[in-house]
Amino acid sequence: MSTVVGEMDHQDHHHHAPSGITRWLFTTNHKDIGSMYLWFSFIMFLVGGSMAMVIRAELFQPGLQLVDPHFFNQMTTVHGLTMVFGAVMPAFTGLANWMIPMMIGAPDMALPRMNNWSFWILPFAFAILLASLFMEGGGPAFGWTFYAPLSTTYSSDSTALFVFSVHIMGISSIMGAINVIVTIMNMRAPGMNYMKMPLFVWTWLITAFLLIAVMPVLAGAVTMVLTDKYFGTSFFDAAGGGDPVMFQHIFWFFGHPEVYIMILPSFGIISAIIPAFSRKPLFGYSSMVYATGAIAILSFLVWAHHMFTTGMPVAAEMFFMYATMLISVPTGVKVFNWVATMWRGSITFETPMLFALAFVILFTIGGFSGLMLAITPVDFQYHDTYFVVAHFHYVLVSGAIFSIMAAAYYWLPKWTGHMYDEKLGRLHFWCSLISVNVLFFPMHFAGLAGMPRRIPDYSLQFADINQIVSIGGFAFGLSQLIFLWVVIKCVKGGEKAPAKPWEGAEGLEWTVPSPAPYHTFETPPEVK
Amino acid sequence: MRTRLITSLLASIPFAASAQSSQLNLTQGVTEISNRVYDLHMTIFYICCVIGLLVFGAMFWSMIAHRKKQGVKPATFHENVKVEIAWTVIPFLILIGMAIPATSTLIAMEDTSESDVTVLVTGSQWKWHYKYFDHDVEFFSLLATQQEQINNRLDKGENYLLEVDRPLVIPTGKKVRFLITSDDVIHSWWVPDFAVKKDANPGFINEAWTKVDEPGIYRGQCAELCGKDHGFMPVVVIAKEPAEYDAWITEQEQIAKQAKAEEQRLLAMSMTEAELMQLGESVYLGNCAACHQPNGQGIPGVFPSLVGTDMVLNDLPAHIDIVVNGKNGTAMQAFGNQLSLRELAAVITYERNAWGNSTGDLVQAADVNEYKNN
């Protein structure tokens, strides 16, 4: 009884969340919006994942069994778009919404109404994109990279919907990024200077600048696709004086920073979790900040490494090879710093830490294959094969998505006020860890042996590998349902979480009670 | 029943395992360049392995030795400038070590000068076309795997999806230059054994080269997503000794010449309906069915149907024109230079009289020829 009274005391009347559907529709509360982003991204993760299941089911055996090649292409395309723009990016925005104000001691995001809008346009964007799959002629089938002229002259009419939905996603991301920047720059608690900010805040600040820089480029690319297809322009049509390769330059000028948009916040998460469970401060804080900045700057100088086979001057190939190799230096610094943080720490292995450790190892494996791909002469062999598919799934699934899982486990007690079920969390981890490797590791071999990506059927030498990969895929997909179970269980109840459930955790978010009250830091804390 | 199922499953396991020796690494290939690429690949791979062993070794060491369970008190250090400089500079030096051989290989790969033979490679949805520069020889190269194998109605052959009706033939020991372009979307011409992969961009011409030392058959695939049948446009190259190659190309020139003469002769002749329909069906299935489907229905919203449409039923001139000259801005190719007059006449006749279309129109080679010369 006394605890209830205590809570009532703590929250006066306007601290209560409004109830009913309008709470969610009209909310300007960063915690509500953060939760909505996270649930949305999880739903999209399942939607995009089920498309991956269709792909893996078709590829289980050579020959065409389940879907026709045109539908297969729609699945690869929409799987990619959904995962990138629907699962990974909104998950990070959700985490930013929840955690950045609490980490810097701010009462909310700086622009709460825009925050509401930037979330609520997203479901419409994806409703449009997913609905286009049911159109006559099917949805987008030109790969998530939508290379012209396959996406212009040779695409079906759903392209217009694809363009529109990408525009909405872009607007949402830009608004989210503006909000993050304005919040971080203006709403830090007294004493929280830049070099005292948690790395998650730092990495998100840099990510937000990347977003503002490149999302308009993507908007430009899709608009040119739209006008080429419907309004008679010839940006990418050689017959009208355009150049299809220019599309790729524009796309990858967006696309390469985009891959860092999807990984920099991960670096921030891992830099919070590893020190917490090693009970030791992060090694090389300032070098982590500088490394993140260096990666962000280099990310604008490497785009054409996605295009080595398009036929570039040798000098350009060399430049992009060297610049790409250079990225491994700051990335390496980060990995070394994490290992040095663990070194002579006092380590425990709760689920967030398990995911963080798996992140470091598997992301580094993805980094190694990335370094291999940077070497232009060998890239000619790897390019557009399953080796590339293995590479980017290692950095995005066992990288970005593992870090999101780690973050969810790490902050769930703060969000819900309950400890999650540690046993189930570990079960989820081990199932995910094993299956993700069964799923993606053999893809390296398929690619090296010569299997191109984005094919619905393959020659017989790849049959065994694909069967293993598909089994890993189904197992990984099913494992994520354990996560759903853990989260629902944790939201509904469980052991009461203290304000700071992790012994070694640092940061302002642990100074407020769990669950975090609807409004936190209305009076800014003093940071020493 | 059940035991039989289990025994047959068990019996199939060793068969499945031995049916194909699963290759797990990059091919060394058959050219000097492909060997250099392979060596680079292995060097980088080993460097990554060593770095990985060191980093992961240190990680696992702390995961085992520095556990809280062991009663370890955490250290408090969180900075060391010397260490930070070391692990910035050392990787940088390793990278320089990697960049040197990579650069020299790259320069050698991109040097297309002083070639002995030049072939123009043109990709289109979904086939390759080869044209020899110094000889009057050109032909299309289509997937030769039967549809029944793809649809699992027949057992899959050894070179399933990696076989074509007419492979490219090149001489061994000579520098062969490929000029690569496309008629529609972007394709990518890839033969792993040559370490050659180059995009075929519509409206632009890319260059690549190879010098094969060993005679043999080398297989590859299109590597850039190019639409529905991207997975079904393989590349097959046969490398022959120069003497054999010369004999082959002379023979091909002869055959091309005869075909032209035959074409002229046929202009004066008429084919019967049965002949037209029979030839038309096979041409249709080989060239048109990929998009318009074997039943002529197409795919709604993507590829138009040919059944009961106005053009097919009522507008013969437009029908011949679109087959011969294609339709700009769509996936409909110009078949005028892909098929012979006889084949064009037959396939148009077939389309106008199959699947319930019953115009009764018979199109002859001479009719088609008028549109070809337009």
Can you describe this structure?
The complex is a heterodimer of chains A (528) and B (374). Helices cover 67% and strands 0% of the residues of chain A. Chain A contains 16 helices and no strands. The longest helix of chain A is centred in the N-terminal third of the chain and has 36 residues. Chain B folds into 3 domains: 78 residues, Helix Hairpins (Orthogonal Bundle); 145 residues, Sandwich (Immunoglobulin-like); 105 residues, Cytochrome c-like domain (Cytochrome Bc1 Complex, Chain D, domain 2). In chain B, the strands form 2 sheets. Chain B has a 5-stranded mixed beta sheet with strand order 3-2-1-5-8, with no helix packed on it. A 5-stranded mixed beta sheet of chain B has the order 4-10-9-6-7. Chain B starts with a helix and ends with a helix. The chains are: A mainly alpha (528), B alpha+beta (374). Chains A and B meet through helix 4, helix 11, helix 12, helix 13 and helix 16 of A and helix 1, helix 2, helix 3, strand 7 and strand 9 of B.
Shape of chain A: globular
CATH top-level class of the largest domain in chain B: Mainly Beta
CATH fold assignment of chain A: Cytochrome C Oxidase, Chain A
The number of domains of chain B: 3
**What is the helix content of chain B?**
40-55%
Helix/strand order of chain A: HHHHHHHHHHHHHHHH
Strands of chain A, total number: 0
CATH superfamily name of the largest domain in chain B? Cupredoxins -  blue copper proteins
Strands of the widest sheet of chain B, in order across it, are: 3-2-1-5-8
Largest interface: A-B, 99 and 104 residues
Count of structural domains of chain A: 1
Q: Please identify, by name, the CATH architecture of the largest domain in chain B.
A: Sandwich
Number of helices of chain A: 16
Largest sheet, strands/sense/barrel of chain B: 5 strands, mixed
**CATH arch. level architecture of chain A:** Up-down Bundle
The major β-sheet of chain A equals:
none
What fraction of residues of chain A sit in β-strands?
under 5%
Order of helices and strands of chain B: HHHEEEHEEEEEEEHHHHHHH
